[in-house]
Design a protein that fits this description.
191 residues; alpha+beta; 10 helices; four-stranded antiparallel β-sheet; Alpha-Beta Plaits; 4 strands; 49% helix; binds adenosine-5'-diphosphate; single chain
């Protein structure tokens, strides 16, 4: 199993709530290796590239939100996935520019899958206890966010595929900012 990399962002809500240490600790506790970390206040350019609007992403966001809101007995009065995606994208861009975030790159076997699992579902209200979103943000919901016309403040971003991880890592870090060093677990998990 080749080791994988994932870009993790502790979003600004996690920073201002003083959760940086707790969130970083979740990744360390699992044994994932942190190979890069810094605080960044994203400008418009970085925010727009990170949250670029692609049609598939817009459709996924639309379908995921619609399904959850209908299951929760709420209305979902939107019929154009692309328009809906554009609205969420612009909320995400505003949120990313709101203040500094912690950006880090983690490394290890199955790193992408493991990170997504410990982060929890997009809507913190639905996230399982034990996940980062479930433990620290469960009061946050689509209902609250959409009623207030703002993004879900769900603490953390984790890359969702190898292709996106590689792209996102190159956006946030220069090659020389990625550090390769041995850790105790390496001898049991190899390259
Ligand atoms: P995830 O972060 O779980 O991978 P997505 O890639 O689907 O989720 O969406 C990116 C981010 O956009 C989410 O983390 C969340 O902050 C925000 N978001 C997604 N859907 C909505 C929505 N319907 N209302 C408000 N914010 C949303």
């Amino acid at each position: 199993m080749a080791k994988q990399h994932s870009l993790i962002l502790i979003k600004h809500d996690g920073v201002v709530r003083g959760l940086i240490g707790k969130i970083v600790g979740r990744f360390e506790d699992i044994g994932l290796k942190i190979i890069a970390m810094k605080m960044v206040w994203a400008d418009e350019k970085l925010a727009k590239i990170h949250y670029k609007l692609d049609e598939q992403w817009a459709k996924n966001v639309y379908e995921k939100t619609k399904k959850t809101r209908l299951e929760q007995g709420q209305e979902f009065p939107f019929d154009d996935p692309i328009e809906y995606g554009k609205m969420i994208q612009s909320w995400n861009i505003d949120f990313l520019k709101e203040g500094p975030v912690i950006a880090m790159v983690i490394e290890g076997p199955h790193a992408i899958e493991i990170a997504r699992k410990i982060v929890g579902t997009t809507e913190p209200r639905k996230a399982e206890p034990g996940t980062i979103r479930g433990d620290y943000a469960m009061m946050e919901s689509y209902e609250l966010a959409n009623d207030k016309g703002r993004v879900l403040r769900n603490l953390i971003h984790a890359s969702d595929s190898e292709e996106n991880a590689n792209h996102e890592i190159s956006l946030w870090f220069a090659e020389e900012e990625l550090h390769h060093y041995p850790k105790e677990l390496d001898k049991h998990i190899g390259d």
